[in-house]
Specification:
Elements: H1 2-10, H2 12-19, H3 24-56, H4 60-85, H5 89-114, E1 117-118, H6 121-148, E2 154-155, H7 157-180, H8 197-228, H9 233-258, H10 262-287, E3 290-291, H11 295-317, E4 322-323, H12 325-346
Antiparallel strand pairs: 1-4, 2-3
Length: about 350
């Protein structure tokens, strides 16, 4: 019985099969309702984060890199672990690496193209290295295993436990950095009355729940509707499915910028990248060894490394305290090229 419940949560095809019974009108209404859930949930979550930051004195970028990113990546970690446990380990690695590419290329790149984003050098010079370091470690271990084993390299359980130990260290060091750099990036003052701590936690938890549930239902509904409209499966896979894994981070980013707190968006993107590598991939590998297909070395890993090291370079050169819009355009352009190549690869033109 437990495995059947897990399959309902993990297996998108089961949910899509159930949704296919709905007429188009119901699907459109469900999509509209899910969009409302996403935006309302994101609003609640950002309000809760700002209130929590004011009460605890922690920088908002750090809360975005820890609490918010943990909340938005925990469902992905659960899905990846269950997928590996149920005999589909490839989904776990693809989920983690693909989300890193989408978070930095799509979400940060798009938002940075549209709005000026501040650079908190104290925090980003530390968490930013954890971001690229975790991804680089994953690639280096995969390359070393490729050179020492026949066939596809295997990320054994020791790799998963190593990543989980590094995750604990990252969270601890982030907390220490936050205490040392508290207040550095905060601009202006907020004299409004502090809300109850319990209310802040309820806003964050309730907002996360609405965002996660809304994303979980919206994507299968959109896929079903697109399929009925004759959109090719490859296009659906390269767009809606890829977007679905990062939709919670996307709506959180848009809500944070809209409410005037772009540092929460930056922290969420950086934190989510670290967690997608150390938490999502690490937990899945600890549950069951993960095979690394060869196309990761020729396609997915290079895209991830290019995007993350570009982001790291932009942090280094932005001495005036702001990301530039051309930098967002570069990251977003790399993501679009990645999507195009993925689609071309899937239909056999490459």
């Amino acid at each position: 019985m437990l495995e059947e419940v897990v399959r309902w949560i993990v297996d998108e095809t089961i949910l899509q099969h159930f949704i296919r019974e709905f007429p188009n009108g119901v699907l459109v209404a469900a999509i509209a309702f899910c969009i409302l859930m996403l935006w309302k949930g994101a609003d609640w979550m950002i309000d809760g984060v700002v209130d929590l930051a004011r009460r605890t004195g922690l920088p908002r970028i750090v809360i975005g890199a820890t609490i918010v990113s943990l909340g938005t990546t925990t469902p992905e970690a659960f899905v990846s672990v269950m997928a590996a446990w149920m005999g589909n380990p490839g989904l776990a690695l693809g989920n983690g690496v693909g989300s890193i590419i989408a978070d930095t290329g799509l979400i940060f790149g798009l938002i940075c193209t549209l709005r000026r984003i501040p650079v908190n050098r104290f925090i980003l010079n530390r968490t930013g290295w954890a971001q690229v370091g975790a991804a680089t470690l994953l690639v280096v271990i995969s390359i070393v295993l490729t050179c020492t084993t026949a066939g596809d390299p295997i990320l054994h359980r020791w790799v998963g436990f190593l990543f989980l130990c590094l995750l604990v260290g990252y969270l601890y060091m982030t907390y220490r950095w936050a205490k040392r750099g508290a207040g550095i990036e905060e601009e202006g003052t907020d004299d409004s009355q502090l809300v109850n701590l319990g209310r802040s936690c309820v806003l964050i938890g309730g907002g996360l729940l609405l965002v996660i549930v809304g994303a979980r239902i919206l994507i299968p509904c959109a896929i079903c509707l697109a399929d009925r409209m004759g959109v090719p499966e490859d296009v659906i896979a390269a767009t809606m499915v890829a977007l679905g894994t990062s939709l919670p981070e996307l709506v959180t980013a848009v809500a944070a910028v809209k409410k005037g707190h772009p540092e929460i968006m930056v922290g969420n993107v950086v934190g989510a990248d670290v967690l997608n590598c150390l938490f999502v991939v690490g937990a899945a590998a600890a549950a069951r060894p993960l095979a690394v297909p060869q196309n990761f070395f020729t396609f997915h890993f290079p895209a991830m490394i290019l995007i993350l090291y570009s982001f790291r370079f932009f942090i280094f050169i932005n001495r005036d305290g702001w990301f530039k819009r051309w930098q967002g355009m570069w990251l977003f352009g790399v993501y679009l090229a990645y999507l195009f190549l993925q689609y071309a690869w899937s239909i056999g033109t490459l």
